[in-house]
Amino acid sequence: MIGFAGLSHLGIVSSIAAAAQGFDVVGFDENPQLCDDLVRGQLPLHEPGLKELSETHRPQIIFSAELSTLNRCDVIFISVDVPTDAGDHSNLSPISGLLDRVITVAKPGTTIVVLSQVQPGFTRNAQVRAERNGVQLYYQVETLIFGRAVDQAVHPERFIVGCADPTTPLPSAFQRFLEAFDCPILVMRYESAELCKISINTFLVAQVSTTNMLAEICEGIGAEWREIAPALCLDRRIGPYAYLKAGLGLGGGNLQRDMVTVTHLASEVGADASVIQTWAAGSLYRREWALRVLHREVLTRCDQPAIGIWGLAYKEHTQSTRNSPAVHLLEKLTSFDVAAYDPAAVLPDGAFPHVHRSSSPLDACQDRDALVVMTAWPEFSDIDLSALSKSLRGRVVIDPLGLIASDRARAEGLRYFRIGTGRLTTC
């Protein structure tokens, strides 16, 4: 039996994915109401396909607020969220406390796996406490991607496992669990695995930052980034899976957190991390792309402008607004009348009194001087542009991510703006 301690976004998705592979699962959380809701099939999060997968495999999962329920498990994953402060510094004390409590109830010989992301050195420091209680401690790199969590959990690209001694075979129950997903299993020392997740995010930041910088150059010289990106994907040194979508900086929380972690680690060992600081500054600059266009085209030209916004989540298929460019934009528009729509995300009560929550995309555009599309929800691509044009009082559509077809928008008489698209001029 497989256990998950902490029914966070990661814990819920991972436990259901484990059941989908045929395992009996225990999902533990200290929140009894959350456990009761999950027993009734009420999910507290939005992920495509999760509801259907849960309904199919819920009979294989025991959700419980009783820590002792984990005693029947052969493998227990620590799967709580890692809280971060305003400076994106991780607070690992909730993970450490939960790990200690799980160690005390686990039966001798149990394998405990830290699935939550931790900083290098955490797992080895905890190893002594685990061995003292007769359990084996491992670290596994989590593969959670908001909006694609189900696909990643059911069909992982690889498993990265950290252990005290990589030359020692994995415990049989843990090995069987990993092999059930039919993907490569990479075993390495604790510290390598802990840094591996940060390394993956660092390379992703490099791609995002370079892409956004080049897309801005496109806007200035009349080039089109969407024409350039396919050529880069055909270069074997970059590849077909490179992240080459121009956007609004680094969204979510993990990338910023790992940039802070890398900077601190570099400082501790005397390495130069100035490139990380440059990427972080570039992300903040890119985040205000929509605001710069909105200021130039609308805010300085209209008396008492009214703004419509599509999307509040930091990306599509999730309700998370952590480090959302849309929320950052709202913070800059406190003096203006704003209407916003998102199919899943909601704003904290009372946080943005100048924002009116709209019931539909077109409702958010009614009598607005401009529309700003901040999240790439697929439904925004299917909007009737004729109806959109009639709803808008102004003619400005700011669509950073290119959800709306630019030629169709301009055919409706809309003034359309997208990241990475230059306006051609004639000599």
Structure overview:
The chain is of the alpha/beta class and 427 residues long. The protein contains 16 helices and 14 strands. The protein has helices at 9-20, 32-39, 50-57, 93-105, 122-132, 149-154, 172-179, 190-221, 225-233, 254-269, 274-287, 289-299, 325-332, 361-365, 385-391, 406-411; strands spanning 2-5, 25-28, 61-64, 75-78, 111-114, 136-140, 159-163, 185-189, 306-310, 337-341, 355-357, 370-373, 396-398, 415-417. Strands 3-2-1-4-5-6-7-8 form an eight-stranded mixed β-sheet, with helices on both faces. It has a six-stranded parallel β-sheet with strand order 11-10-9-12-13-14.
Number of strands: 14
Q: What would you call the shape?
A: globular
Strand arrangement in the largest pleated sheet: 3-2-1-4-5-6-7-8
Query: Could you give a short account of the major beta sheet?
Result: 8 strands, mixed
Question: What percent of residues adopt helix (DSSP H or I)?
Answer: 40-55%
Radius of gyration: 24 Å
Give the SSE order as H and E letters: EHEHHEEHEHEHEHEHHHHHEHEEHEHEHE
Parts with pLDDT < 50 across at least 5 consecutive residues:
none
